[in-house]
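URGENT: need a sanity check before tomorrow's submission.

F., can you look over the Peptidase record below? I want to be sure the sequence and structure line up before it goes out.
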Amino acid sequence: MKNYFKGSIGVTARQFNLWIHRYVGLGTAVFLLITALTGALLAFEEPLDNWFNRKLAYVEPQTSQPLSIAQLHDQVVATFPQKKFSSMPIEIESNRAVVFNVDRDRSKSTQPTNTPTFQQVFVNPYTGDIIGTRDREQWAWQNTMWKVFWLHRNLLMGDIGQTTLGIAGLLWTLNCFVGLYLTLPRARKQAANASLPTRSRSWLQQWSRAWTVRRFSSWFKLNYDLHHALGLWFWLLALPIAWASVGFNLKPVYQPVMALMGAQDAPKPKTDAPRSQQISMTDHTLTINKYQAIDTLTTMAQRQAQADGLHFVRPLGIRWQVEDGAWQLRFKTAEDIGNGRGASSITVNAQTGVVSKINYGARAAVVNKAEHWWYALHRAHFDNRWYPILLAVFGIATAVMCVTGVYLWWRGRQARQKQRAKQQAKSLQMRA
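Structure tokens as predicted:
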């Protein structure tokens, strides 16, 4: 490859890859800088969101026992009968309001409505009183983290921004490999009698310099070292996060690639059944109604996981599948990867109480497990309080790499302009 480039177009493979790295980096620098800094904030999305929204998110702890989730759900449904609330939280914290999310409207109706728009309802767990609702689409202080999320996801530009960031993620993925190649030592002539261990040791010693930042060096060398070292230190995190961003934002590219690798498609969501065919989750004739669902399905999930050789950790959330008249509990086992896409679930027919489906994240195909890893790494979906810190540091490091990369290009451009001017002056002198 090296000889081909040098012989056919006058550049070496290293020069060609340097050109790719330089201009792909320049083309994506602004987008990566924005997503890196917003990603650093989103590593702590929940606590930051609660802080910005503290008037709704927090309550005064009381000595009395809180109401059950089902009772709180009753209060919400009675207060907002025009809305649907199919999902319920699992746990109640002593100083936190209980949040119920409004179902997304999957209809394509464009008719205006007089109903106030909101997506969340906050309830006092001790009294059942509605603390308030939140319309996360509004530009308001309490929605700061929601806007940060969409700035990170699509630059607040809808589908155009999402596609743009998907392309940037694809180029970033490519640049991860190109950048790694450029950190490798250049080939040098070795003594003919040098042994293989000696050559290997020499090569590793040269490469180890790319991992370090020289102290007391010039400003240019500091930027150069930071750009190389940070890229190497975080390479194993950068690659899956970059590819996950393609999965989030550029599915026409991501899905065919993953299908070729053997990934299995997730089931498509069903459309709502006609209202005449819908079963109420509060129907007392059901074997498992709303008031029993959380405890019953948690117990069933524990027993089923144990029977299948897995270790149940905790429930994550429950929702009512109105189209099937069934409950679905998402839960985590010790063998699952993260608590997002890699989590497990159990679906139980509410009329018969029979398990209709169980899905273990730990039993997914190998390629799907890889997907679980990079999505969990990207979204910090781990029960680990240290990982968000690592993810935030990675976001800051990526921002530094963007800035140092642009600086190195600018200094290199200045040097190339000076060299070109010298050559032109020399050429003029020779002509004179």
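My own read: Strands lie at 87-88, 98-101, 120-123, 130-134, 312-321, 326-333, 344-349, 355-359. Residues 271-277 have pLDDT under 50 and may be disordered. If you see anything odd, call me.
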